[in-house]
Write a structure and sequence with these properties.
Blueprint: H1 3-11, E1 24-29, H2 38-47, E2 51-56, H3 66-73, H4 89-95, E3 99-105, H5 107-115, H6 121-128, E4 133-137, H7 141-145, H8 147-158, E5 162-163, E6 167-170, E7 176-180, H9 184-197, E8 208-214, E9 218-221, E10 224-226, H10 233-244, E11 248-254, E12 264-269, H11 272-283, E13 288-291, E14 298-300, E15 321-323, H12 327-333, E16 341-348, H13 352-363, E17 367-372, E18 383-390, E19 395-402, H14 403-418
Helix pairs in contact: 2-3, 2-9, 4-6, 5-8, 9-10, 10-14
């Protein structure tokens, strides 16, 4: 069983056989070619213990038929307010929902939602919903970048809706660019984080946050590098959580090999110098920067353009190392804008808290997440345990648990400082 399925079933009482209402999710589907991907999102929602009702637009049924939605959800499907009028569906569906997610959300649907139009069952549902609303846009790049669409997106975000950024990739036909629907698994992650918080108004809406993740690699020659054990999982959890809390997220990812989180702009980098350049550029207008990446302290002084050969009877030449830039100290000392919150991570192997306090003073950041690491601790794991030290003298322990729990705590502390 999926670990999250077990958590949901326990949370809603199935472990004890109690009769507890499952979270009610409305899955709106707009008329775009990406509608077929919503079938996978629907499967993930239903199998993880949610009560899902699909509300497609009439155009969406040109791509996926009503029979498919009914079979996968176990519920009747309608696009019109005139069906089952005695049940007043155009009001009741939105009123009773714990979450409304529209995936894909076309430019037309975003425009109608932003301007309060209600000409079908989905747009009526959006007007009556008082729960969190998530839009996952999908359209051609030119449509996404058009000023009208961007103004509609900003209007929806200003009202508290979560409009996640589309992915970059192959679109309809031979086109490639920004506008691709994020992977269903990643949209599901946003949905479950929004549901878990149970908050209608996202506390990071209108904020731009930068997160670094993964581990830098410093090349020795064309086939070798100096690196570390960081997987990037904690940074990705931070990025996903921030997106679910309404932030615009830039993720600077160093050698992670993981799929892009939904609604996040990903900037891939390799070395510490490249990571510094990307972070400084993204931080120029950021409200908060969270440096979760494991940045190499040193790099080889010289790079061998050819593979370093082993020579019989000879010891290898010593590798001379030079210091990499201290990115966390730099952005803490020279903040790009007033009130910018800076968060660092400290991976320690001994005297964890003492070393963490020393590093907090030396780096000059607002918060420092300190955790003990080792060959089988933290790096590559799905769990983490840490203490978040504050420049104000505060200490916030985070017990052992999924990395998203630590991510929620970090953003709670950041949000407090932003307000």
């Amino acid at each position: 069983m999926d670990p999250y399925v077990a958590v949901v079933r326990c949370q809603y009482g199935e472990r004890r056989g109690e009769t507890v209402d499952k979270p009610k999710v409305v899955l709106g589907v707009s008329g775009g070619i990406a509608a077929y991907k919503a079938c996978e999102l629907l499967r993930r929602l239903t199998e993880s213990g949610h009560d899902v009702r699909v509300v497609p637009t009439a155009s969406a049924l040109h791509f996926v038929g009503a029979a498919t939605w009914s079979a996968l959800s176990g519920k009747p499907v309608s696009t019109e307010v005139w069906d089952d009028v005695h049940e007043v569906p155009h009001v009741r569906i939105g009123q009773h929902a714990d979450l409304v997610v529209v995936a894909p959300a076309t430019a037309d649907t975003l425009a109608k939602a932003a301007h309060g139009l209600a000409d079908d069952l989905l747009t009526n549902t959006l007007l009556t919903a008082r729960c969190p609303v998530v839009f996952a846009p999908a359209m051609h790049t030119e449509m996404w970048e058009h000023p009208a669409t961007q103004e509609n997106v900003q209007t929806l975000r200003r009202r508290g809706a979560i409009v996640i950024e589309p992915a970059v990739g192959r679109l309809t036909g031979v086109d490639t660019g920004k506008g691709r629907l994020p992977e269903p698994a990643e949209i599901f992650e946003v949905c479950r984080r929004v549901l878990a918080r149970g908050v209608t108004e996202p506390d990071l809406k209108g904020r731009h946050v930068v997160v670094s993740a993964g581990g830098t690699r410093e090349p020795l020659d064309p086939v070798r590098f100096l690196g570390n054990r960081s997987s990037g999982k904690q940074g990705y959890a931070l990025a996903r959580t921030a997106a679910a809390r309404g932030a615009r997220v830039t993720l600077v990812a160093a050698n992670t090999g993981m799929p892009d989180p939904a609604g996040v702009d990903v900037v891939p980098v390799g070395t510490a110098v490249q990571l510094r350049e990307a972070v400084l550029k993204a931080a120029a207008d950021a409200d908060a920067v969270v440096m979760a990446a494991a940045v190499a302290d040193f790099r080889p002084q010289t790079y061998a353009t050819g593979k370093i050969k082993k020579k019989d009877g000879q010891d290898p030449e010593p590798i001379v190392l030079v210091r990499n830039p201290d990115i966390l100290a730099e952005i803490s000392a020279e903040r790009a804008r007033p009130g910018q919150v800076i968060v660092g991570f400290a991976a320690e192997t001994d005297d964890v808290l003492a070393n963490g306090r020393t590093k907090l003073r030396r780096k000059g950041c607002d918060l420092l997440v300190v955790n003990e690491v080792g060959e089988r601790k933290t790096f590559g794991s799905e769990e983490n345990e840490a203490v978040v030290l504050g420049a104000d003298g505060s200490e916030t322990p985070v017990p052992h648990g999924p990395k998203e729990f630590l991510a929620e705590t970090v953003w709670d502390l950041v949000a407090q400082r932003l307000t």
